[in-house]
Every structure is written in structure tokens, then in C-alpha cells.
Amino acid sequence: MNPGATPTTPTQEKPPPAAGWGRWLLLAVLLILLAVLGTCSPRRSTLDEIRTLGVLRVATVNSPTVYYIGPGGEPIGFEYDLLKQLADRLGVRLELVVAPNPPAAVELVREGAVPMAAASITITDSRRKLVRFSRPLLKVVPTLVYRLGQPRPKNLGDLQGVLRVVKGSAPIETLRELRQARYPNLQWDETEDDVAEELLYQVAEGSLDYTIANSDLLAINQRYYPNLRVAFTVADAQDVAWAFRAGRDTSLSEEVERFFEALGAKEFARVKDRYFGHVEQVDTQGALALATHVDTRLSRYRQAFQTAAAKNDLDWRLLAAIGYQESHWDSDATSPTGVRGIMQLTTDTANFLKLDDREDPAQSIFGGARYFKQIADQLPTDIPEPDRTWMALAAYNMGVGHLFDARILTKKLGGDPNRWLDVRNALPLLSQPRWYAQTKHGYARGHQAAIYVGNIRSYYDMLVWITRDKNAEPLTPLEAAEEQKKDEQKDEQQNPLNINSPVL
After folding, report:
1. Distance separating alpha carbons of residues 459 and 325, to the nearest angstrom
2. Which of 44, 162, 210, 237 could form a disulfide linkage to 48, CB 3.0–4.6 angstroms apart?
3. Where is pLDDT greater, at 184 or 431?
4. Residue 363's closest CA among 348, 342, 377, 347?
């Protein structure tokens, strides 16, 4: 302080006028009210947000049991079909976020990136703590898989090689429990780079000793890799379900429950049958025989199948599957009933088709294609695909009249005559006097027709996989997963969860 300065005291502000205090008080009250209203106003539910945005975002995986691009370039799959119907019910667009594996799909739901996941997710105790589950869609059994020609282990303590599973997958919980309870020396590898289907391929081609796969995925892949074998089941059957965000907002999960109620057991069974109704129709020996015959026999007749199918607007692989069921592509095949040739045409059918020689491979194939097309064209146009094709196959086997009889019986029993699953269930009745007495065309071997269609469906699936031109046709689920893995590695730093989000 300067010695000559005069000391000062702090100045005091004069209080504002009474009117000023009133304005300040009013403003404070308004701010408080706005804050209270803001915190008390209800947040929109997840279901409301989906309807407002017009998009249902779902985490999924590339898998033949869930979602993949089919031979015609369209997305298909058991869980995809159900999701599409759900989105249509909500009146919104379906957008899939493709995760590398089911555990990653669960994580996307847990962190709130998507409201739900449909990715072949098995329900486990640890997952119940992270997400909410829908009603079960399937029951699957985790099985230990090894390769034919290798010693079959009796239990997890008998393993003589590398066991590898997907990191974060449901089997890991079981393995940890079994190691603690019974097998203290049990070891396994966990991979983030491979999907379950890739691990099955590695076992099949010999670069991996063992993996654990769910029974549904294994059944599909055994048709393509017939040297895969089940050593034993690792755990009891487990439920597969859809996963939702945990918390108090249950609007979406409740809507999904209403969706399944409205869908009904019959329609659900039809969708399930489309993907799983025939996978065990052909055993592994039959699949191995077909793979061998593709190399040794089909190559001689492939061009004929392709040309005949193109002229009759058919998929050549379906036509080839019919030929394989009929004769195993043996042009000299003759049945005990006198039918001959690759397509096993009767004398009457050959005469009807004006064939000179039903044993000539080209004439037999072209005649069979024309005959199948004529049968398919007789079916009502309101039968949807693929049900229409399966019914046409049944009619090709036992006659159009008997198929119509089966459709009539289906309707009498309360089923849908336009759905193959319902008609297939009615086919065996055609061999029972009580039922075929009510029909126009009488007795038929309905059991045989049902097996016939199931076999051809399996052969067709295998032929699509074996003969597909990888440069011109859509990727298989396994190849799609491989391509996705490459993209994930490129984008790892920008996208730590390795997500690819195509809009469908």
C-alpha cells in the first residue's frame, strides 16, 4: 500500500428493486420446472423407436442355420425367415448387423449397439446375466466331432490331439465345469478368427483333431463333409433363442412373444421344416457316395441336365438330384418294376413323351425334365415356393391324382393343403384303408413319396454346394465367413468389434 494512500473499504451492492427480485425468482422457478419435466417425461420405448425410425436392426451371423445368401442370390435361413416376418409385422425394414460369431452378437446387444440378436445363440447361465432371451426356437446338442479314420475318443479325458472352439462360445462354460469336476488335465484352444463351420471344415480336412459343434450345424455339414463323426455328446440338449437388451424396457421382447403367438405352431413348423426337415434324410455314407458319383458319373451328363433344365425353366441341380434319386446317374439302371434309364421312365411315360429310346441318357434326361415341368404346371398357382416344388416332386413319384388326394385329406384334418409340411404328414394316410377309401384315386405308397422328396431335397442341397461356380454364384456360408474375416482384419483398428452392417 502506498504510504500516502487513503484506506478504502469494500463497497456493498445495493439490493435490487423488489420487481427485479420477482423476475429472478420467476426465472428460477421456470428453470426448475423445466428440469423436473425433462427428467419426468417418459422415454420412448425400444419398440416405439423401431417403428419411428422404420428399421429393425438385428445382430446375426453367417451360418446355414441362421442367415446366408442362397443359390438365387436372395437372403435365406431359418432365423432370417422368422426375422423377415417379424419386420413385416412391424411394418419396418430389416437391417442385419453381421457379427463374426454368436458371442460377438450377444455383446452387440449387451452394449446397446442393436436391440436384439438372432445368431444361433444358446441359452447359458452366464448369458442370462447379460441379456434377456425369447422363447426357445430350437433344441441343440453340443457334440464332440472327430474325423473318420482317427481313433474315436470315449470322453474328454481320452483326447489325443488339439480341441479348438470359438472364443466366448457356449461349450466353453461346459468345458470349464467338466475340467473342474472330472478332467483336471483337460486343455483346449479358443479362436477368435474362425467360425464354428470353419472348425468343422478343419476337422474334415485333417488340420484339426477335434471341435465341439451343435447338432443342427453338424447335421447340415455332414452332408458336405461325410467323414465328420460324432464321438459323444458334451452336454444335455440346450435351447437356442433370440437375445434382447436387459433392463426394464421389455417392449420389443413382448412384441416378439406376440409375434410368435400370432405366427402359430403350424407356420413355425413349416419354416423350420424348410431348413431342417430333410438334413438327416441321407446318411453320411449316402453323402459320400454322391460326392464320388459327382466326379465319376455326373461329369458325363452335366451338360444334358443343364440344357434340359434351361429349356424347361428348372434348376439343373434339382433335375440332376431327381436323376440321382432315380438311378444314381446310371444309364443302364433298371428297376424291378421295369422302369429304365437315368430318369427311370416307364414305357407309358416314354410313349407319352414320344421318346425313341428311354435308355438313351440325353433322351431320358430331356424327357424327365419335360415330364416334371408338366406335372408342376398342373399344381394350383397359389402354392408358394418351395412348397410347390416339393409337392411337384411327390406327384412325380406317385402321380398328380394321389397328391391331390393328399391335399384334400390335409384340409379335412385341419391342415393347409398349400403347405408341404402339412401335406407330407398326410401322405402316409394314403396307405391306410380308412383314409384312402375317402379318396378319388385310392391306395398310394405315401410313405415312399415323403422319403423320395426328402432325399431329393438333400441331394439338391449337396449338389448346389459341390458344383457351384465360385466366381459367378453367391458365396456359401463358409466362404462368406472367410471373406468377412479378411475384411475384419483390414478394419480392425477402425472397428474393434469387427462388424459388417449390410442393409437388406
Report:
1. 8
2. 44
3. 184
4. 342
**pLDDT beyond 60 at 24:** no
Q: Does domain 142-236 have CATH number 3.30.565.10?
A: no
Q: Which of 217-226, 370-379, 406-415 has the lowest mean pLDDT?
A: 217-226
Evaluate whether 60 touches 120 at the Cβ level (below 8 Å): no
CB 243 within 8 A of CB 126: no
| Gyration radius (Cα) of the chain, Å | 31
Banded model confidence at residue 11, pLDDT cuts 50, 70, 90: very low
CATH of 47-138+241-276, one of 3.40.50.720, 3.30.420.40, 3.40.50.300, 3.40.190.10: 3.40.190.10
Residue 149 backbone zone (phi > 0: left; psi -120 to 50: alpha; other: beta): left
pLDDT for 344 equals 87
Q: What is the CATH number of domain 284-467?
A: 1.10.530.10
Q: What percent of the chain has pLDDT over 90?
A: 52
User: 0.70 exceeded by the pTM?
Assistant: no
Q: Give Cα 2 distance to the centre of its chain.
A: 90
- Nearest CA to 199 among 176, 225, 177, 223? 225
Distance in angstroms (rounded) separating the CA atoms of residues 440 and 223: 39
Cell of 219: 447335421
Catalytic residues: 326
Q: How far apart (Å, rounded) are the C-alpha atoms in residues 301 and 303? A: 6
The residue among 399 and 445 whose pLDDT is bigger is 399
| Distant-in-sequence, close-in-space partners of 298: CB < 8 Å, separation ≥ 6 | 305, 320, 329, 467
Give the SS3 label for residue 308: helix
